[in-house]
Design a protein that fits this description.
alpha/beta, five-stranded antiparallel β-sheet
């Protein structure tokens, strides 16, 4: 489903990754661990098509997205969604408008149906008219997740999405988001520095050590 081969990333004289390889099957939930500066987020951004590398290829469902460290498919055409640490919701938009932002090509009826199904999936029915500031941090992150799922991505990338929450809310949300992704059947990669979080969230876990990915 996802194949990342021989990824090498350097910043000036700082060699971050050298020989990063990853294979995931459809529906896998994978956690990527590593120390600060180990290249976790850089690997994620390369898979998303947001950063180049010195070397490496990405294929999704047999389609080559990147090769030789550069990208042949633009980020918005990759069928890859992203969830960020800071939620990245538009403050001036309602929940409905945020979730439907990436599906503007659909009819009004189709958008309503899609948003309602996603709110049901994330267990936040009836909040479509609220604004982000009216929601808790955990609710905002679930809305961010729903927005990413609205475009029906084949792969979802989550870059430390729980790190800004306090521990009690974080532990609950980690379990909830895992359940949501399992129900949706979306192949996912979580970047985190928290080993307990990775164990709760993922089916498979890898850790970057000595510039390479080791999978346990």
């Amino acid at each position: 489903m996802l194949r990342v081969n021989n990824l090498k990333i350097s910043f000036d004289d700082n060699h971050v990754l050298d020989g990063f390889n990853l294979q995931l099957e459809s529906g896998d939930i994978f956690a990527l661990l590593g120390d600060s500066g180990s290249g976790k987020s850089s690997a994620l951004r390369f898979i998303a098509g947001l950063e180049n590398a010195q070397l490496g290829s990405v294929a999704l469902d047999g389609n080559n997205l990147s090769d030789g460290g550069s990208h042949s498919v633009k980020p918005e055409l990759r069928e890859v969604g992203m969830v960020f640490q800071d939620y990245a919701l538009f403050p001036h938009m309602t929940v409905f408008q945020n979730i439907s932002f990436g599906i503007s090509h659909l009819s009004k009826k189709e958008k309503i149906t899609k948003v309602q199904s996603l709110l049901d999936l994330i267990s936040l029915e009836g909040i479509e008219k609220k604004y982000p500031h009216q929601l808790s941090g955990g609710e905002q992150q679930r809305v961010s997740l729903a927005r990413s799922l609205a475009t029906s991505p084949k792969l979802l990338l989550l870059d430390e999405p729980f790190s800004s929450l306090d521990k009690s809310n974080r532990d609950q949300l980690v379990r909830e988001v895992r359940d949501i992704l399992k129900k949706a059947g979306v192949t996912s990669i979580l970047v985190t520095h928290d080993e307990a979080e990775a164990n709760t969230f993922a089916d498979k876990i890898g850790k970057i050590e000595k510039k390479q990915l080791l999978i346990s």
